[in-house]
Design brief:
This protein is α+β, with helices and mostly antiparallel strands. It has helices spanning about 10-20, 25-35, 105-115, 145-160, 230-240, 290-300, and strands at about 1-5, 35-40, 55-60, 65, 75-80, 85-90, 125, 130, 140-145, 165-170, 180, 185, 195, 205-215, 220-225, 265-270, 280-285. Strands 5, 6, 8, 9, 10, 11, 14, 15, 16 and 17 form a ten-stranded mixed β-sheet that branches. A three-stranded antiparallel β-sheet has the order 1-3-2. A hairpin with an 8-residue loop joins strand 8 (about 130) and strand 9 (about 140-145). It starts with a strand and ends with a helix.
Length: about 300
């Protein structure tokens, strides 16, 4: 593949993910280090600055299997075709393997269930997960089964055309029936595991919310993400004084109503099908834990 630089002074490792949707910056840097990228026929470095008109040749090597064990983990696949599947992830299931979770994640389960239907866009054969939800958030997650789907879905995620709607129970009551939180989110300056609203190194983050029902001391809300920052709804709700029920990281430190993790569910996922552009709308009912919380709130009213 050959690309022509359309701007001047852009770093090479920033240009590549921009023109190759689905390619991460770290994967682009790895390709540069492995001499898979040339600029005007010459070797290059990740921090090289491009000139307008430069010719960038990209040779993506054949994807290699990853050293992740497949494991028979029950998965609720609520939509599937030859390009995409959508999983309704339960609360408590980690998405990607990491320290402490090497073989009990969604990825392990997908490798077992659909091991021969994988995306290799980043140089590794793996389930093409283009967006994540937290371990203790339940709900819908789209998975690309091939590179075409991965590229198109990643593009929709980037241009905000993939619509994701969440339901949550938050602490306190809103005066308004709907609103928008437009506040940049970045890494917390002293706690690297947390995010926060910050202008310094923060990225644009926009969350639209509406009230579903008010209860005594709590509110059931629906949120639509315009952007997709880490912990976005949790951080934004805490920022405006309405932390999510059970979120002991960003909200109240003691469990309430039996909830020791956030009451947050990704209930609706909408995207254009990567092959033919037709609209795909997938819905997931409120899980049992969420319904139990609403029942308790009903009794309190």
């Amino acid at each position: 593949m050959i690309f022509t630089a359309d701007t001047a002074e852009e770093r090479l490792d920033a240009f590549l993910p921009r023109v190759l949707e689905g390619l991460t910056r770290s994967a682009a840097q790895r390709l540069i280090q492995e001499n898979c990228i040339t600029v005007n026929g010459k070797a290059c470095k990740k921090n090289d600055r491009l000139k307008e008109g430069d010719q960038i040749r990209v040779e993506i090597p054949e994807a290699q299997p990853v050293d992740i064990p497949a494991k028979d983990i029950p998965l609720q696949i609520v939509y599937e075709d030859e390009d995409v599947l959508v999983v309704n992830k339960p609360k408590g299931l980690v998405v990607h393997p990491a320290a402490g979770h090497q073989d009990d994640t969604l990825v392990n389960g997908l490798l077992f269930a659909r091991g021969n239907s994988l995306s290799g866009i980043n140089g590794e054969l793996r389930p093409g997960i283009v967006h994540r939800i937290d371990k203790d958030t339940s709900g819908l997650l789209a998975v690309a089964k091939n590179d075409l789907a991965h590229t198109v879905l990643a593009s929709q995620l980037k241009d905000h055309s993939m619509a994701r709607t969440y339901e949550a129970v938050v602490c306190g009551n809103f005066k308004e029936d709907s609103g928008t939180v437009d506040a940049p989110i970045g890494r917390h300056p002293t706690d690297r595991k947390r995010m926060c609203v910050t202008a310094r190194n923060g990225k644009e983050a926009v969350t639209h919310w509406e009230v579903v029902r008010r209860y005594r001391g709590y509110t059931h809300i629906r949120c639509r993400l315009e952007t997709g920052r880490t912990h976005q709804i949790r951080v934004h709700m805490a920022h405006i004084g309405h932390p999510i029920l059970g979120d002991t990281v960003y909200g109240r430190k003691k469990p309430e109503l039996g909830q020791d993790s956030q009451c947050l569910h990704a209930g609706v996922l909408c995207f254009a099908h990567p092959r033919d552009g037709r609209p795909v709308v997938v819905c997931a009912d409120l899980p049992e834990y969420f319904q139990n919380v609403l029942a308790k709130l009903d009794r309190m009213n």
